[in-house]
């Protein structure tokens, strides 16, 4: 890059939705600076102006996603010796719109547990899928391509064939009983010729999720299937699981992403831990 335009860097290894996000970020950059601009000629202040301009009418989280996508290109360029410094180093994330209220992203722990129990009670494909999302904190894209070999009952592991990022392929620890239950339920489903377990659209998953909401009397329209992933974190934190482990389990690129997304939960957890320390010395 320094002597190359950013447009020359592409990320074909990401899945379709990931590619859309990266391409969109790249197009935003090129529309602002011009496709032929050399990154070495862009100062941090100019890059900050670009972010400020993009942040008009958008939430901080939206700006953060663009920064994250562009940073991947910058990292590749530095690795290939085309660039010596990040133009995005220590930039401010400033959107002008407030993000959605956190209550629209998280369920209570009780609602989360009630959902899991309801998923377990059903044998349909969509509920098995939702059950896996709930107990692993996985995304739709992590689970949709699973095959039966991904269910390791002996070691209590579920192999997630994630495609959102290059390192999304991972093994997640669950109980042996969880794997046994999932394997039993999928054994009753029709077998697919391609070996994959699931054949579900986003809408099919959402429909079953919304039905579950009615069953447990959860009336918040802002709660979507993605809330299972968001609530997985506070549930683990409430059980004393370290944030470092949770970050890897969720397959965040680095722990700073986890800290940013769940900062308010960590503050609450810190208060709880502080009280436990006081009790130790009381």
Short recap of the structure:
With 282 residues, the chain is mainly alpha-helical. It contains 12 helices and 3 strands. The radius of gyration is 21 Å and the shape is globular.
Outline the structure in words.
The protein is mainly α and 282 residues long. It has two domains: 6-79, Orthogonal Bundle (DNA polymerase, domain 1), CATH 1.10.150; 103-277, hpI Integrase, Chain A (Orthogonal Bundle). Helices cover 52% and strands 4% of the residues. The protein contains twelve helices and three strands. It has helices spanning 16-33, 44-55, 60-79, 109-121, 125-136, 140-143, 176-186, 202-215, 227-238, 243-249, 255-261, 263-280, and strands at residues 151-152, 157-161, 169-173. α1 crosses α3 (60-79).
CATH class of the largest domain: Mainly Alpha
Q: Report mean pLDDT, rounded to a whole number.
A: 80
Can you tell me the residue ranges where pLDDT is under 50 for at least 5 consecutive residues?
Answer: 7-18
- Rg, alpha carbons: 21 Å
CATH architecture of the largest domain: Orthogonal Bundle
């Amino acid at each position: 890059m320094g002597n190359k335009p950013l447009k020359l860097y592409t990320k074909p290894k990401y899945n379709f939705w990931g590619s859309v996000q990266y391409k969109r970020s790249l197009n935003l950059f090129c529309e602002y600076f011009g496709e032929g601009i050399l990154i070495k000629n862009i100062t941090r202040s100019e890059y900050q102006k670009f972010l400020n301009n993009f942040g008009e009418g958008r939430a901080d989280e939206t700006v953060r996603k663009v920064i994250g996508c562009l940073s991947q290109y910058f990292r590749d360029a530095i690795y290939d010796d085309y660039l010596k410094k990040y133009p995005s180093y220590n930039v401010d994330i400033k959107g002008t719109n407030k993000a959605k209220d956190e209550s629209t992203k998280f369920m209570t722990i009780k609602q989360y547990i009630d959902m899991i129990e309801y998923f377990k009670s059903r044998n349909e494909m969509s509920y098995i899928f939702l059950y896996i999302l709930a107990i692993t904190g996985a995304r739709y894209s992590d689970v949709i391509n699973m095959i039966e070999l991904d269910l390791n009952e002996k070691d209590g592991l579920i192999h997630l064939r994630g495609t959102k990022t290059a390192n999304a392929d991972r093994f997640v620890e669950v109980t042996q009983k969880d794997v046994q239950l999932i394997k039993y339920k999928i054994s009753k489903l029709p077998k697919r010729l391609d070996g994959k377990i699931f054949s579900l659209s986003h809408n099919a998953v959402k429909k079953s999720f919304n039905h579950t909401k009615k069953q447990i009397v959860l009336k918040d329209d802002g709660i979507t299937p993605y809330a299972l992933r968001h609530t997985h974190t506070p549930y683990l934190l409430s059980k004393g699981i370290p944030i470092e482990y949770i970050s890897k389990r969720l397959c965040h690129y680095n722990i700073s992403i986890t800290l940013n997304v769940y900062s308010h939960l960590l503050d609450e957890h810190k208060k709880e831990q502080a009280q436990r320390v006081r009790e130790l010395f009381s």
